[in-house]
Amino acid sequence: MGQVRTQQELYDIFKDEVQVSNPTLTDFTDGSINDAVAGAFSVAANELQALLIDKFVLTLFEGATGQDLEDLATDHFGESFARPGASNAIGVVEFTRPTFTNGAVTIPAGTVVKTDQDANGETKSYNTLLTVAMGVSDLSVFASVEAQDAGTVGNTEAGTVINIESTLTDPTVVVNNAVDILGGEEELDDVDYLEYIRNEIQKLSGGSCEAIQAALENVPGIEQATVKEFIGYVIGWDISGSLPVGDPFIIARVKAFISDANGTANAALIDLAKEAIKTVKGCGVMVEVFAAVAVTQDWTAAITLNPGGPNYSSLSVDTAPIITSMTEYLQNLDIGDDFVRTIARAAIMDIWGPDGSNDLTDFQTVTPTGDVSTEDNERLVPGVISTQ
Question: Is pTM beyond 0.70 here?
Fold first, then answer.
């Protein structure tokens, strides 16, 4: 079996081959002609070997980066595997008015709404996606909006989209966003793009829970997705006669729960999720998409620092790095995952204990006092995280 050789090994291979071919060529002392030729060969062969290894690594998804990674993905699977560009934030705003004196008002698709200017004099602008209308007796209507600028710049907090730039037939109409507008993301870096490729490959299986989950996780703005399959026993029903028809039979029902960075999802994100799964769900199988329910979880831990640990001095003053690890642990729990104290302890000790940085000799959860169970649609999100 072939193996990677060091430059010295390549030199020795050349020397052995020369002496086997001609035993009289024995002078390989420093500076001799044989030494010079063998040295040149070993350097060139080593460079070629390194080049071949580098090129081979680029043929593996785990080894490629940048444009090489994108080229590899599109060459193997087509243009649908190209690196996604930055995505636009989406959300919902509500148009309201104090009276319906001015009658029906139409709010066309493309109506521009925006935030106030920030400290730098900049605003965030959004376009409505569909035409909506307030009838003659309506005082409010909801509309989906999309940020004009792609990337995280389009994300904004609730209550900040309060200006209407476009002219409406009723000047008393005002706008506001009751919930955050999210989903704006920058172009994927290599780590996230590699995960995107894995999900796209998983989608190729089609119809499975794994394929549906992969499709959902590739929707901009969805941080987590969980897909659950349920089996139900049903029977046909004659509506006119109010009588059962035939024998009971089994149907499959699927529920998908999604969440954004806040642990839940708005209506616009749910609509994007429904669209994303159309190409992967099985024909005739209902897949319902629901927003996850965010459940705030406080976590307090009693820690024992290792006096001989590499970060003892700094951690004695500030345990923020350990708190960050605890926060990330909760953030990485999937929808429907329970908080199990022993598993959580093992995860933190893997990072900070003897098998990690060796800064902790013990870590015990004080709050919560017991394991925390969740429902299929619940996602634990970090609340107050602390150490003592």
Answer: no
CB 128 within 8 A of CB 108: yes
Residue 43 lies in a domain: yes
* Domain total of the chain: 4
**105 three-class SS:** strand
Q: Are residues 97 and 131 in the same domain?
A: yes
- DSSP letter string, 194-260: HHHHHHHHHHTT-SSHHHHHHHHHTSTT--EEEEEEEEEEEEEEETTTTEEEEEEEEEEEEEEEEE-
Residue 154 DSSP code: G
**pLDDT for 55:** 57
Q: pLDDT of 254-292, one tens digit each?
A: 889 998 877 888 888 888 899 888 878 777 677 889 999
In this structure, what CATH number is given to the domain that contains residue 227? 3.30.300
Residue 121 lies in a domain: yes
Domain hosting 15: range is: 7-80
178-224 pLDDT, tens digit each? 888 988 988 888 888 888 888 887 777 677 888 888 888 888 878 88
Please, what is the Cα angle at 156 between 226 and 276, to 5 degrees?
35
